[in-house]
Amino acid sequence: MSALGVEHGAAAPVVESVGATIAANRAAGRGTLLGYLPIGFPDLATSIDAAVALVENGVDALELGVPYSDPVIDGLAVQKATQAALEAGFRVRDVFTAVEAIRARVDAPALVMSYWNPVLQFGVDRFADSLVGAGGAGLITPDITPDSAEEWIATSDRTGLDRVFLAAPSSTRQRLAATAEASRGFVYAVSTMGVTGARQDVDSAARTLVSRLRDVHAENVCVGIGISTAEQVAEVLDYADGAIVGSALVTALAEHGVAGVSRLAAALAQGVSR
Asked: How far apart are CA 95 and CA 60, in angstroms?
């Protein structure tokens, strides 16, 4: 048994794609709650405990962020957390340690969210194979579009990993159609233009964007950026398949530790059943 609670050589749990989770929840008459936290903040072991706490308190699927030195779409809370993780010695290989440890403790899809450069530097095939071996479900790539992701599309087809691309309110119909066709798992609908961060009101542009994605036959659409309350989760799930919460959870972890993450996750989960 390792220091992080993973038995070396143990088989990874059978991976259920996030798309299958969304479909199962839809069949049960409910939406899907996804939670984001960066790996390695405030340290690797605590980030694993915090991710586990999300699932134990009602989050259906995880987005595990890869700390990166140039986080162009991340808001201040996430930037501070990822910078702290980097300063504490985060390395890309820690992604697979974290995913394996989390999946050994909870049965929920674990997506990795990463800018493309760390994946490219690690090696696309090597990264994908390591993620599969750890029990990860797929990869969210916020800074590449399907027309520049030929290598990743081929690798994810080979490995069966989910691939999640982002769609923005400014996207053309042609770009939305290409994104919907290339994505597997869900399309990540960015509810506002700009960087991430909790906002008092989720931008009404999200509803229009989801409608536009439905028009180009996107099977699953999840909305992120700006969601921080159970009321906002319920609002988003009225028209989308999933609600993604990130900055609010990162702030809870920074200010109140794993206990704070647990409390907020449980509160957010109340929005799923409304």
From this structure: 20
Which of 129-138, 186-195, 222-231, 248-257 is the least confident region? 186-195
Please state, for a pLDDT cut of 70, what percent of the chain lies above it: 88
- For range 240-253, the mean pLDDT: 95
Encode 197-206: b = buried (16+ Cβ within 10 Å), e = exposed.
bbbeebbebb
Report the alpha-carbon distance of residue 262 to residue 260 in Å, rounded: 5
Q: Is the pLDDT of residue 123 over 60?
A: yes
pLDDT tens per residue across span 168-199:
998 999 999 999 999 999 999 997 644 445 45
Rg (CA), the chain: 17
Instruction: List residues with catalytic annotation.
Output: 63, 74
The reported pTM is 0.90
For 24, the token pair is 């199962």
**Side chain identity at residue 187, one-letter code:** V
User: Domain 18-163+241-269, what fold?
Assistant: TIM Barrel (3.20.20)
pLDDT for position 72: 57
